[in-house]
Structures are given as C-alpha cells and as structure tokens.
Amino acid sequence: MDKPKMDPKDELEAPSGEMLLEEVDEATELKKKLEDAEARAADYLAGWQRAKADFSNYKKDEAQRFEELAKYGFADLIREFVSVLDSFDLAITALEKNGPVEKGVYMIRSQIEDFLEKRGLQKLEVEVGSDFDPRVAEAVAETESEKMPGKIVGIIEPGYKLFEKIIRPARVIVGKIINK
After folding, report:
1. How far apart are CA 39 and CA 173, in angstroms?
2. Which of 170, 164, 63 is CA-nearest to residue 120?
3. Engineering a disulfide at 169: which of 41, 61, 105, 138 sits with its beta carbon 3.0 to 4.6 angstroms away?
4. Rounded distance, CA 143 to CA 164, Å?
5. Beta bridge pairs of residue 86
6. 82 CB neighbour count, 10 Å cutoff
7. What is this structure's pTM?
8. d(Cα 126, Cα 138) in Å, to the nearest integer?
9. Total Cβ atoms within 10 A of residue 175
C-alpha cells in the first residue's frame, strides 16, 4: 500500500518546549566557553607582549653593560699605568736636577701619555689657586695661608679620569685660615 504523500511542510514538526530549552542551554554554554577562550587568549597575548617588552629591555640593559665593560674593563690596568707615569715624572725631575735630560726620555713619557689618552684617560683640571673641590681632589694636607684659605696651594699628584669616571682624584694641599 502506498502511503499518502505528504506535504514537506507537514513532515517538520514544531519543536517541543523541552527541545528549545536544551538548544538555548547548549548555545549559552557554547557562548560561555567562547568568552572564556577569548579571555584566556587576551591574557596570553598580554603576557606575551609583556615578555616581549621585558626581553627588549633586557637586551638594551645587556648592551649597555657590555658597553660599560668595554669602556672600563681595563681601568685597573690604566690606573697602574698612571702610577708608572708618576714614577717616570719623578725620574725626569731627578734627572733634571743633575743636568740636561736627553730628548728621548721626554719622548718616551709623551708616548706613554698618548697611549693612555687614546684609551680615554684625561688629566683632571686642578690648578693652584682654584677652589678645593672634593669631587675631583683629595686634600692630603693643609697649610696656613692668609691669601688662599679653602683654595688649593699645592698639587702633590695630578688626578685622572677614564672617560667620565674619576679613577684617581688629584692629591692636593689646601690652604687654611691662620689662627691669630
């Protein structure tokens, strides 16, 4: 027997109320899962961006540290050369007292000084008669002075800086007020 043909519209049944509630619950659950996934993705992105910024800052800091090391890594060696230069100056002074000094001695001293200057060493500008500045000079003695209290009256050893850092302050004698 043939079944009577039905209209396709008749085959679709109207969904029951229970079925609609299940679909709404499922859609709500899917929406919540999507929102959770989006929130996690946003957290991961923010974390990645922070990590990227931190790494960029780290690279800059390391480059700066490396530059400092390259600049000041030989400070101890330069400081020792300064002592050699001081000894050389003392030797020249002693030789000058005994008579004329050979030109070659002055040339050797000049070569040492040029070598140090090429590597960033500079003599500090400290002069007799200038105000005492504890940032660039170390007072190793005081002497009474009417005309120059608080001023430098003598330089015992010159001071030096390597690039911007003082590696040895000038050692000076400072005038003090005469007590009457």
Report:
1. 71
2. 164
3. 138
4. 31
5. none
6. 21
7. 0.63
8. 11
9. 20
Distance of alpha carbon 74 from the chain centroid: 17
Phi, psi of 120, deg, nearest 5: 100, 5
Contact 173, 154 (CB under 8 A): yes
How many alpha carbons lie under 13 Å from residue 100 in its C-beta half-sphere?
3
Alpha carbons 150 and 142: distance in angstroms, whole number: 9
- Is residue 75 within 8 A of residue 167, CB to CB? The reply is yes
Classify 21 as helix, strand or coil: helix
Q: Where are the domains of the chain?
A: 16-72, 73-119, 123-180
Is there a contact between 73 and 119 (Cβ–Cβ < 8 Å)? no
> What are the C-alpha distances in Å from 127 to residues 51, 109, 133?
53, 22, 11
Ordered per-residue pLDDT tens for the chain, 180 residues:
555 555 555 555 555 667 777 888 888 999 999 999 999 999 999 999 999 999 999 999 999 999 988 888 888 889 999 999 999 999 999 999 988 888 888 999 999 999 999 999 999 999 998 999 999 999 999 988 777 788 899 999 999 999 999 999 999 999 987 765
User: Interior CA angle at 156 toward 155 and 162, to 5°?
Assistant: 85
Let me know how long the chain is. Answer: 180
- Asked if 92 and 106 touch (Cβ cutoff 8 Å), the reply is yes
